[in-house]
Amino acid sequence: MSAGLIGTEVALQDTFDVALVDLDGVAYKGPHAIPSAPPALETARAAGMGIMFVTNNANREPETVAEHLTELGMPCAPTEVMTAAQAGAALLAEHVPAGEKVLVVGGAGLYTAVKAKGYVVVDSAEEHPAAVIQGFSPDLGWRQLAEATYAINAGARFFATNLDLTIPNERGMAPGNGSLVGVVRTATGVVPLAAGKPEPAMLRLAAAKAGGTRPVMIGDRLDTDLKGARAADVPGLLVLTGVSTARDAILAIPEERPSFIGEDLSTLAETHPAPVLAENWWHVREARARVTEGRLVADGGTPMDRLRAACAAAWAAADAGLKVDVETLPHFG
Fold first, then answer.
1. Is 223 in contact with 198 (CB distance < 8 Å)?
2. DSSP alpha helices (H): ranges in the chain?
3. Distances (CA, A) of 328 to 296, 323, 325
4. Mean per-residue pLDDT over the chain, rounded
5. pLDDT > 70? residue 333
6. What one-character-per-residue DSSP string does 191-226 give?
7. Domain locations in the chain?
8. Which burial class, exposed, middle or buried, applies to 237 when counting CB atoms under 10 A from its CB (0-12, 13-18, 19+)?
9. Using 50, 70 and 90 to split pLDDT, how confident is the model at 326?
10. What distance in Å separates the CA atoms of residue 160 and residue 152, rounded to the nearest whole number?
């Protein structure tokens, strides 16, 4: 798959058979739906596109996630949810035999997923667990992190559902599971095996669960959602409703670059023309961009098409070993 933006002749919802949709920053932010998300997903479903919600948040169970989405105007069945807890339990099963004791450091969703794989869940290192698995929960405290540290230092294997350093909510950015995993990692010197995005296994599991053969990953974070899409060889759509900004997209490293960029989920109903190089300018419909003496210039067209052209120009320059002056990047928005 190309490391740059690609194009479609028809709308994304008619090009791909299933959308792997991130939650925080894509479908909702905190307790509120992103306004464009419910109608966009309804339109995509009506066009025949399957929806699988994929989240690195391992705290809640699929039933709870589905209920929340339904309350926010995005009807969803529990079978249409893939959590990092489920992916983490699947990773655990690849390395630790069923029936072993596992110390779970996380929320209800992780407890349920680990039990479903046939493990004996314990909450103390004194039970001599064979493994520790850590997932996000806003209720985690020092005692749970200490038990994990004791168990790992005693020889337990260390797993993490995901390594997101931050998590968005209605108040801004808060510490994510990766930050909390970092406490245990610092205390033990042990790096965990991780299951969630950007690891590819979670997206492959989600696509298989949805029965899709032409999936597209939709996320708001380059370092997890879009990096995971690249790792899984799945086209990725970056929406600008969460963490990563237009500026971030322009400066994206190859392994985190999206295949498509849109303002929000409504872009599923749109065609995405591929950038075209002509006379030293990258063109997307009426928009164009180029890098001249390290300075990125973009004009014409809509703001989104200018951003797409700007990404094509900046990425081509970076791949050619040229420096792009971050102080002179155009404003998009």
1. yes
2. 12-15, 37-46, 62-71, 84-95, 108-116, 142-153, 177-188, 201-210, 227-231, 246-250, 303-319
3. 7, 12, 6
4. 95
5. no
6. PPEE-STTSTHHHHHHHHHHT-SSEEEEES-IIIII
7. 12-56+198-269, 86-194, 276-328
8. buried
9. confident
10. 13
Residue 291 has pLDDT above 90, yes or no: yes
Question: CB under 8 Å to 250, separation ≥6 — which residues?
Answer: 296, 307, 310, 311, 314, 324, 329
288 pLDDT more than 70: yes
Q: What is the predicted pLDDT for the residue at 4?
A: 93
In 3D space, the residue among 163, 195, 197 whose CA is nearest the CA of residue 26 turns out to be 197
Q: Mean pLDDT across the stretch 196-208?
A: 91
Lowest mean pLDDT among 128-132, 160-164, 311-315: 160-164
Query: Which of 212, 302, 200 is closest to 255 using CA atoms?
Result: 200
Helix 108-116 vs helix 62-71: crossing angle, to nearest 10: 130
Q: What is the pLDDT of residues 105-128, one digit of tens each?
A: 999 999 999 999 999 999 999 999
Q: Do domains 12-56+198-269 and 86-194 have the same CATH topology?
A: yes
Report the CATH number of the 86-194 domain: 3.40.50.1000
- With a CB cutoff of 8 Å and minimum separation 6, the contacts of 258 are 5, 222, 226, 229, 236, 237, 238, 249, 252
- What class, spelled out in words, does domain 12-56+198-269 have in CATH? alpha beta
Residues marked as catalytic? 22, 24
